[in-house]
Input
Amino acid sequence: MDYKNYYAVLGVARDVSQDDIQRAYRKLARKYHPDVNKSSEAEPKFKEISEAYEVLKDKGRRSKYDQFGSAWKQAQRSGAQPAGFEDVFSSFRFQGGEARSGSFDFAGAGFSSFFEGLFGAQAQPSAAGGAQWARAATVGQVGANQEARISLTLEQAAKGGERELTLTDPTTGSTRTLRVKIPAAVRPGQKIRLAGQGGHGSKGSPRGDLFLLLDLEPHPSLRLDGRNLHTTLPLTPWHAALGGPAKVTTLDGEVTVKIPAGSSSGRRIRLRGRGFPQTKGRDGDLLAEIKIVVPRELSAKERGLFEQLAQESEFQPEDV
Output
């Protein structure tokens, strides 16, 4: 028999705990069981991982394997077995006294009780003397995927960070709190997958996944459109006419921009790279649209100045 690295077969290190070995086996068994996986390599892979688990799950067998495993090829060539090696497969049965590929008999390996606990099935001997696994009527099911909505401010969606989320179980009414890491530059309607945080599985199967659907709270002054942000920049008539500095709200706070003299309502001031961040490509822009606002009530002096301006100015709106 060629030496097999059973630790490598299960994808674990040599110093892992027995619980880690069992977890690794359960994961691989669910993936490669022939009743679940119909690919041609599933059955031989399933037999290989089952053989590895049967040795490593038992502390005594595992100890002997760790002690004599490296001598298995030499023992095969010499026809002799290292002392204690025969115990490793004492609970296995082979057809015709040979350990031929594909002839491993699970029915005699003491493995069926564990498999029944995992999949709800028992091994049934085939007519040829091998083992065929009965299709399980009560195979453990992976938990259902669940979905929840989470509402973010525009700043939270742009910068990411941790959020605390309290979920209520619709069946039991119980609640649980999760700390969720929100990646930067997430967008409304996007989903965040939390593996293993969904519904409970049956018969020891893993939980499903939880998908968080992102909603965006309205911002008091910014509006997201694609990767650009839009805002309104209110100006007095004299500010718009004379130009000068003005404050514009961005995701990072207020910044000062220069208003060109003679700006009318509808004119846009573009702040490049001040829009919504992007995971790929350049960040969006912030477009501040000027809106000229006049006072609802005028003092006597203000009225007099506007009347004087009306008399002095020859400007007409159609001249623009």
